[in-house]
Write a structure and sequence with these properties.
By secondary structure, the chain is α+β, with helices and mostly antiparallel strands. Helix content is about 15%, strand content about 45%. This is DUF2911 domain-containing protein.
Length: about 170
């Protein structure tokens, strides 16, 4: 009887150690495109952007991994979401308060920021242009410094998207 309970105790301990090691190994492994978010305020409007941030990993990004002229989810995994609690003027055009999926139609010199009324989407697979709330054209800037991971920033006068050597910026009034 005593041998049986010692064996059970040993098996329970080994099993517990195995579970702990598995959990720790999973925590150490980083996601390829981790979830990120940024929040800020412009002219009294609270803005939040939620996205998954892929890495360059030596790849050609715009014109390669992200083709020119094709709608891109502006991140990885789920479509990026953009939310504002007040109406905004983006590049001089009005975006009503609400939550949107955010896409980019990349170009070599100009790109289009797209705010789509279907806020929850996986990638751009079911993207429907007829559901767009707003499309605005933004300049494409080349940066000297390289941004390994996709980054969104809310700055005093707008939003910036930076990845690799490319920066997009929309002015918000």
């Amino acid at each position: 009887m005593k041998k049986l309970s010692v064996a059970k105790l040993m098996m329970s301990t080994i099993f517990g150690l195995f579970i702990c090691m598995s959990v720790m190994a999973q925590e150490e492994k980083k996601m390829a495109s981790p979830p990120e978010s940024v929040e800020g305020e412009i002219n009294g409007a609270k803005i939040s952007i939620h996205y998954h941030s892929p890495s360059v990993k030596g790849r050609e990004i715009f014109g390669g991994l992200v083709p020119y002229g094709k709608v891109w989810r502006a991140g990885a995994n789920n479509a990026t979401t953009f939310e504002t609690d007040k109406d905004l003027k983006i590049q001089g055009e009005t975006l009503p308060a609400g939550k949107y999926s955010f896409f980019i139609l990349p170009g070599e010199e100009e790109s289009v920021f797209i705010f789509n009324t279907v806020a929850k989407q996986w990638g751009a697979y079911d993207y429907d242009e007829s559901k767009d709330a707003l499309r605005v054209t933004v300049p494409v800037e080349e940066m000297d410094e390289m941004e390994e991971m996709l980054v969104y920033k809310i700055v005093d006068d707008g939003i910036e998207v930076k990845w690799n050597h490319t920066k997009f910026k929309a002015i918000i009034e």
